[in-house]
Amino acid sequence: MRLLIGTLFTLLVAAIVGLGTTYSALTHGVAFGALNIGSWTAWPKSGTTDIDPYAQAAIARMGRLPVALGDGVEFLARSDDQGRPLDGRCDITLSGTTPAARYWTLSLYTPRGGLVANSVNRYGFTSQEIVRRANGSFQITIAPRASPGNWLPTGGIERYVLMLRLYDTPVGVSTKEGREVPLPALTVRSCP
Amino acid sequence: MIRWTLFLLGGVLLGGIVHLGTVFILPLTATQDAYSRLTATVPLDKVVALPLPTPEKAAMPFMDPAFASTVCRYDLAQGPIKLTVPVNSAYTSVSFYTNRDIAYYAINDRAAGGRAIELDLMTAEQHSQLPEDEEITAADRLIVESPSPTGLIVIRALALSPEMMPMAEKAIVTAQCTKVAAPNPSD
Questions:
Q1: How far apart are CA A148 and CA B154, in angstroms?
Q2: What is the pLDDT of residue B139?
Q3: Any idea which of A78-87, A181-190, B163-172, B177-186 has the lowest mean pLDDT?
Q4: Residue A8: how many other CB atoms lie within 10 Å
Q5: pLDDT tens digits, residue range B139-169?
Q6: Interface size between A and B, measured as CB pairs under 8 A
């Protein structure tokens, strides 16, 4: 009897530990070979056949297709440079430069990957749409209310994520964190 | 007490195996992954336009709203596929995915060099059966080997601004993915 209860207890622990860790790994986006630059993270290997099982499981679960490495690389930001989650009610400034690439796009999504409805139907920018400073750097205001210059509307949602995609770029699996990959900074300007 | 600690330890170890097992099995059994969902809506060997993502509806999460996309779902069992993609936009790319959503190859307009991206998609077996003394040398002809007999080709064209989206959509909707007659192994 004791053995039976013990075995059941073992199996219960196994189920909780096993399924719990799988769930948490897939929802938090655990994958190997992450390239962390500032608040941006890329998983260049996810766009190749060398994709690790965790990234593959997360992609299958989300129902999306990764950007293939020969096409481009995608950088995801969930938080600002201070590590606070991106809040759609705040005014956040994205400024700086981007790594070498033929084109890039910046898009704003809900944490589950949906676009956010807004009054101007703008879901992101391409590298050609941006108004730049004389030295080529740029600044984008990500805010719920209209703002002069490059304004990316948040629709006032509580949490969002940003995806910066570089197309036709030398950034890839062998890229190391460093000066060769300058990514724009994300700073909170004001928060209600 | 020691007995229960052992039970607990055994549970945690077994949990580790359960964890690894589920992570590996999940992609094989997923029914809501991109390939499975597109299987329901996209016919075989035909280039079909994916609607632009909107806040209400998107073919899949995290689609780049600056791109027009078309998709061709292929099955190489009956023979290789010939793909022709016109290049008229600022940036056009073709990405290949296995039936497990793994990106195994991608090419863009500049890498293809020319007015169109043209290539032949086949399995490794079909590739090895190609006659060697064919007039067209391998250099003129881009051959891509698919690791799985079925999969997806995603053709994407960048619209540099929203006004250019209709042009980008028009540019890639004429892409063609057509079945080539299977090479006869007895030849």
A1: 36
A2: 56
A3: B177-186
A4: 11
A5: 567 889 999 999 999 999 999 999 999 999 9
A6: 210
Q: Is the pLDDT of residue A54 over 60?
A: yes
- Whether A101 and A114 share a structural domain: yes
How many CB atoms are closer than 10 A to CB B185?
8
pTM: 0.88
Q: How many other β-carbons are positioned within 10 Å of the β-carbon of residue B13?
A: 14
pLDDT-based confidence at residue A81 (cuts at 50, 70, 90): very high
What architecture is the B34-179 domain classified under in CATH? Sandwich (2.60)
Asked if pLDDT for residue B104 goes beyond 90, the answer is yes
Cβ <8 Å between B62 and A163: yes
Q: Do A65 and B97 touch (CB under 8 A)?
A: yes
- Write out the residue range of the structural domain in which residue A95 sits: 33-190
Task: State the Cα angle at A40 between A37 and A43, rounded to 5°.
Answer: 90
Our CA-based measurement puts residue A3 at a distance from the nearest CA of chain B, in whole angstroms, of 10
123-182 of A, contacting B, C-beta below 8 A: 123-124, 126, 128-129, 163, 165, 167-168
Q: Which two tokens stand for residue B62?
A: 């995290």
Is the CB of A15 less than 8 angstroms away from the CB of B19? no
Determine the distance in angstroms separating the CA of B180 from the nearest CA of chain A, rounded to an integer: 26
| Interface predicted TM-score of the whole assembly (ipTM), two decimals | 0.87
CB contact under 8 A, B93 and A49: no
Is A141 in the same domain as A57? yes
Number of domains in chain A: 2
Pick from B15, B65, B102: which is nearest to A56 by CB?
Answer: B102
Comparing alpha-carbon positions, the chain A residue that sits nearest to B9 is A10
A69 and A46 inside one domain: yes
User: Buried b / exposed e across A99-113, counting CB within 10 Å, b at 16+?
Assistant: bebbbbbbbbbbeeb
For position A62, which CATH number holds?
A: 2.60.120.600
The verdict on a CB contact (< 8 Å) between B102 and A51 is: yes
Q: Domain check: are A7 and A90 in the same one?
A: no
Q: Are residues A54 and A100 in the same domain?
A: yes
Q: What distance in Å separates residue B20's CA from the closest CA in chain A?
A: 8
